């Protein structure tokens, strides 16, 4: 699935490499399990995260900063047989394009959104994002921010997402399972992926210390999901749960738009004209 | 009768809109061409709103200074429209609430007695109108029944009362022409897109384009269309581009403010070569401006919006018939050349109501997508002589379809390479050259009036009918480009051949079409501009043009 | 030496940027004018990046075909830049990783031995350069100490090693001029805004304007500025307009994609008459395009963006000095005329580094707000001869300040009235007329080269220095409008008086300045266009112009 | 405070009349209590709700559809002494401009946002909005929507709002109290105001039946607030709590930007130039 020729342009040590590798495996496995690769479409925002689509020889839609989710919705509605996986950044989709994310969750449209949450605008050299901690010093906030981070999972739970998980690029086995599960989930699935940016916000030590695998958790229970999601608010020094927080099934928005437009329009339009006389 | 104008006015919420359509349908039965102008404020109830329904033997799309019948549901109709009366204008009014000369009918008490809601005053008024126009009751009743689907009996009874209370003033004679479908510019546009193969319509409501959304949503099932109303105009354009990528034809519709929000997506469409049709309905700005009135202020914005340089198609229909045909052309060519197309309407065309004969509509250009042959590696941005790369869509084996908002290689992966950047930029612009040729092969410029006249009046959009009618008695030809980008210069020059004077007429303050012609090397001698949101009357414009003609 | 060019290249992350600035500062000490061009890809580490530092006795802002010293931290510097070498170019390279002729120094091992991080290769390289240029060690050390604030001793030690390992090839002589501040176009722009009275800078990062945000955030405290980085460009422009309403001067900065999202706010500013300064940094599009390269593709977009018609000021500085002055002018005039001003930069100006003498900067136009007298009812949109209404801000007693995106009465409440619509539209456009007069009173068009020549090369933005230098040997004058809207036609015509030929040079594919001149009635004879993101060299352009001159 | 001359352009029976009247009283009372009227700024989006600013002779910023909140933030940051009250619509600010609302809440900037939630786009003739119930038939969804409504209060609680309440235009006494409280709250306050649109979505009967006043509620408790907020999801037939759900204090964003820019720039710039040599 690798283009081969395309040089990979991430910093050495960047968490995105792991994401790319895991994604390759996931696609290979899905293919083996009967998801034809040609029915997979990768969409991406703009940022370091987005480069992943250049490195995978799979259908792709390299969109705009913040707008990949809306485009992905169009793709899915156009052809509901496609599996649409969206790689976005935290600046990209928790910031610039947050609204699209919330509405995609509200609609429960069948998409998989993978947020490379490195908690910085990496490609534009390390400014704070909606998930940077209070006081984060980036180039637009050299004295530290005055804003608490958002908890994106809490927000998306409130918005109506039907699958929510948190992954970590250093836990590749778990990440693989989560990705597969999210892709196969019929509805809006989002993985908040702690993807470490070694250059601007190296949190490896912190995540390694605080991260723990979520076990024995009833992910069908809204309240339990919420309480686990709220355990860490992207600011405090709390434990960081990794795994699936929530999964339920609800009718998907795209399921109401199945079926392709195969009607001879001419007689229909003729009839409409007649009614207008 | 040669032609007839009926004015009906009241407050918003009085059902003026429906009533005027019914009047149109009535006159339509007699084989007239119909044009209805609607004037309403940006509110739901109250204020003052009116429509002018005109019937004529020739195609029309403008209104004249005076009307023949003035139906007044409130006093404003008289106080604000004194100048619309000629010496024989019949005023029919609700004598319970209006003071006037003419034919007073106690509509309010009639409705109250019958136990109907206040809005039914207009049915009683229509009954009165039928009598005023000398229609036999049976004829009127048939049409009214076909159109008043709710509370039909009560409505008919009230119309009958109105009919009985009125007198005959005119005598409508049937023309030798069957009744035609009667529809707004937006409805025609929606049907034209549908006829050309639209798969999806995505929009966020905004006057004057909302009724496309309403109309297509209403008929989505019959037409097998996907109609989607998302959270914002940004989502709208991005969804539409997602449709295009997946091989499904999408259009979107908005007005200036929403279009602003789409410009980033528009530029993306240019780079990624994703076809999309954008209906841009013009209304007076800047900003929120006058939401329910008309302007022609977005021509240059439409032309240069979006960062970077890429080709686009801009068409500007002048009535419902043209809206039907040119929206189809826009969709077809957007796909043929894989670029964005903008249908520039103005409120007067978008919400004006016209009738036309569907059989007379020109054939659309052939559906002629350059589809990928299926052999070799698929290159979404393959270099070709025309700049158009063979199309393929994701979902089928044997191809990987990659589109990209960054500069890219032929296969769609990102590049920053210097020569490739140049090559790709030229590839994209080359499509514009091919598009010009295509456009010059269509009837992209129309000429009306005295084709040999030395003075040309050049106009666009809703200006067409107004100019054509305003110059009927003048030694003037009217030239109307239907395509504004790429500008059909060959046809324009041909249309202007032999003129000594060019006068531009448009609804804006900076003479945008004049500027465009100047860029095309066409010298403009004078401009006649209006920018108060309302269309001029035929007479007003006639006078201005007559004064200007050398 | 007349002039000297030093190339330094490596991978992104090798610190090329910092190193080249230090080289610039070094040469600056000798009284040269400095210009640094930075070429880097859109990534953080890896890829290939380089800078060219040029020192000359005249003002410069372009680079020539060849360099005198080529500092190679990786092999690409040699493989990709063969054409940058002349017969006496000294190549200094890290002999541990690069194969070349010239002066090889084992930088990697040097750094490893000293226990420094790899990025310190460039300090050692700088030491070597100092020797190559014949600088006394002490002189170099002083400057290095002043600029290398982290790990100074280790850096100095490594530089010393590099110095010792190199030989003297050139001899820099001090010019009779003090060293000048050295800064990027964006930094100069930021200071110019600050000097003119900026209160707040609001921005969302986007190359090539992000460094304005970074610079002003860094100095917010000293300058007593409010610097805010909100959730999106839409929020950015709306916040800035909120600032303006409250009487505080705000500027925003972005590039094409972000500007698209601001166009709705721009049109709002036009309607509501809220002053705002928008820095629009150009880079190749359409869409994401080539984020870290340069273009001049947004001129016509900037000119007509936003629905409706309203006046705006557009200035386009050609170097840091002009960025300083004209951004100040933009802020002052935006407020004086209560309209949006756009500072159109291109990546080459925005991120190019220059030195200039602050004392030589022209005086800004006087601060001359037309403030409300305080008597009577306050009318935010009072009719006046110039179109400019007296200003007042909310917060003080005795006034009610209402602004509105709808068409409005003088007091700011909504109207849909027909004559008022016309009157208000004319009021707003009248400000544009007053603005033209103001602009014609400034030096809005510059002329360089042989002022009597029959051929004029007309350029804008970063084209200025390139054209001036490229035409040094030609019988050509260079004309550069600094204001692009309203176009200073009187000055332009004067500047072009007596020419027989006009050649336009710009970084785009559709000759946008040429189109603008055409609209102004100025006939363009030829255009020289580049659109691959990189500036041409002086020699390349010289050849093209020479070929074109009649 | 009424312009007098400006005719009021709402439908007879519209809930907005009550909002206007209550707002007049609130402003009068606040003035009596020492909030100078000239320091009040009203901002508004575009929609029926927004017309309120035309009818009050108070400083106003009649903004764009969806964008009033961002503008209001600018006003507040420019001059933190101003009391900024923002009137927005549900289409306007739960739809088009939702992102600004969430970020304003995240920042806890001191604004009062009054959402005239009539659950339709009234001014554009009755299309569904983010709070219309599932299956709502508007002119863009004649067959009924396929989307569950958002619960805006749940979303804003997750986003970090420090004051959240629900009002109803028919309960004017309560509404007055809530408005005053919200205006005086130091931080981001939002009132979801059930404002009935008699023309397109007349819910008077429903709200009169289901609405009840929130009493004995611990509004400082996040969980209690959440559970009350979730009682009605804008879709079900549940009871509809009216009153204050949540109020806590946190530092406001604007408090970090107090103080006006009174420094002589010339010497500062001179010094900066010197440092750049
Ligand atoms: C409309 C718009 N605004 C700004 C940018 C500039 N931009 C490109 S990437 C980026 C930040 C990316 O941050 P994030 O989404 O977190 O991705 P990361 O690089 O961290 O993976 C920005 C601001 C843009 N491309 N488009
Ligand atoms: C960018 C933009 N898109 C669309 C519109 C058209 N528009 C005006 S008001 C409105 C709906 C208002 O609905 P809501 O915010 O709920 O206000 P209400 O009228 O119900 O009070 C829309 C879509 C606009 N003015 N601007
Ligand atoms: S800057 Fe950060 S996110 Fe980007 S490639 Fe480097 S480590 Fe990865
Ligand atoms: S349409 Fe609805 S919201 Fe608008 S004024 Fe009428 S009742 Fe009120
Ligand atoms: Mg990030
Ligand atoms: Mg509403």
UniProtKB/TrEMBL annotation, chains A, D:
PANTHER family: 2-OXOGLUTARATE OXIDOREDUCTASE SUBUNIT KORB, 2-OXOGLUTARATE OXIDOREDUCTASE SUBUNIT KORB-RELATED
GO molecular function, a single term: thiamine pyrophosphate binding
Protein name (database record): 2-oxoglutarate synthase
Gene3D superfamilies: 3.40.50.970
Oxidoreductase among keywords: yes
Keyword Oxidoreductase: yes
UniProt GO BP: cellular respiration
Keywords: Oxidoreductase
Residue ranges of domain Pyruvate ferredoxin oxidoreductase beta subunit C-terminal in the record: 197-255
From TrEMBL, chains B, C:
Keywords: Oxidoreductase, Pyruvate
GO molecular function, one term: oxidoreductase activity, acting on the aldehyde or oxo group of donors
Ranges of residues in domain Pyruvate flavodoxin/ferredoxin oxidoreductase pyrimidine binding: 194-419
UniProt-listed InterPro entries: 2-oxoacid/accept_OxRdtase_asu, Pyruvate:ferred/Flavod_OxRd, Pyrv/ketoisovalerate_OxRed_cat, Pyrv_Fd/Flavodoxin_OxRdtase_N, Pyrv_flavodox_OxRed_cen, THDP-binding, Transketo_C/PFOR_II
Superkingdom field: Bacteria
Domain Pyruvate/ketoisovalerate oxidoreductase catalytic, first and last residues per copy: 12-163
Name of the protein in question: Pyruvate ferredoxin oxidoreductase
Provenance organism: candidate division WOR-1 bacterium RIFOXYC12_FULL_54_18
